[in-house]
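pinging the channel bc i need a second pair of eyes. not urgent but kinda urgent?? the chain im working w is below, pasted from the shared doc
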Amino acid sequence: MIAMKKIGFKGLMAGMALACSFALPAVAAEVSGVKFADTTTIATKELKLNGLGMRTKFGMVKVYAAGLYLPEKKSTTADIMKLEGPRRVTLVMMREISSEDFGQAFMSGLNVNLDKTEKSKIVSQIAKFGEMFATIERLKKGDVLHLDWIPGAGTQTELNGKRIGETLPDLAFYNAVLRIWIGDKPADSSLKPALLGAQS
């Protein structure tokens, strides 16, 4: 009888531990110690972590960890471009970098992935996006940058939880930004498949 009580108590404790584990915030994965939540909410819509990876320079210098959040998981750039609803790219800085250098890297990524016709349609928004980087002096290790697409509003950027820059209205612009990482000429060839959810 005593043995049965002991087993029952152990079973109860195990059940409570299991229940508590389900109540904890879900962390899907991490890269180089940077953790990304399994889900996030944008404009009342729950988004899923599609993939994450590390942007490196010269194959070894860590620049930032990146995560891509979508309404539903997709494994190709074409399918992501067709998605309706909000989206998010989260960048977590791994080193300090001047806003000028960071902005130039963004502009370079846009330029190599857009043809003249595509660029001409969103040139004013590209210019405003570039101006945004002039409002901050530098990005520091640990800084978190969110680039969000919000239907009915546009592209919104947050740095450490604070909105920066203007809201840029065209979906074509946000898709152009996404192509920096998942376009035909991505900023980092190993980061692209990671964001598309490829298994390592």
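so The first helix runs from residue 2 to 23. and The CA atoms of residues 117 and 146 lie 28 Å apart. — does that match what u expected or am i reading it wrong
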